[in-house]
């Protein structure tokens, strides 16, 4: 959904007024959303092609790795897009504070908390 929305942004009338730094953030958001989509879709496509080939274990391991890479790329995309929009709307430190907060929240929820729980259970 984020990727599809980002594909439409440059065609809106206000995009021509976006500063160079925000265009860079847009580039990061768009390309990382594309990468996230590819990594999230890859296990399904590979499973369809390799169905009943006796490769379940490598497919599951690869799907797990791709899921982690996709999650990281999605976090980058979401945070870059959020920073771009907040920076467009507000001056001062608010955009960077917001970006730090959303990055910290994604890092905690998606990576650190499960890593800590996993370490406790081993």
Automatic annotation (TrEMBL):
InterPro entries: DUF6328. Keywords: Membrane, Transmembrane, Transmembrane helix. The chain crosses the membrane at residues 26-45, 65-86, 92-112. Pfam families: DUF6328 (PF19853). This is Uncharacterized protein. The lineage of its organism: Bacteria, Bacillati, Actinomycetota, Actinomycetes, Streptosporangiales.
């Amino acid at each position: 959904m984020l990727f599809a929305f980002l594909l439409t942004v440059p065609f809106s009338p206000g995009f021509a007024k976006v500063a160079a730094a925000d265009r860079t953030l847009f580039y990061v958001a768009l390309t990382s959303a594309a990468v996230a989509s590819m990594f999230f879709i890859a296990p399904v496509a590979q499973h369809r092609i390799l169905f009943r080939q006796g490769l379940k274990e490598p497919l599951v391991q690869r799907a797990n790795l791709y899921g982690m890479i996709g999650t990281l790329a999605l976090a980058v995309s979401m945070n870059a897009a959020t920073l771009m929009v907040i920076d467009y709307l507000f001056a001062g430190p608010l955009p960077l504070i917001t970006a730090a907060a959303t990055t910290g929240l994604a890092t905690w929820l998606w990576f650190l908390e499960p890593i800590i729980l996993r370490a406790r259970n081993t």
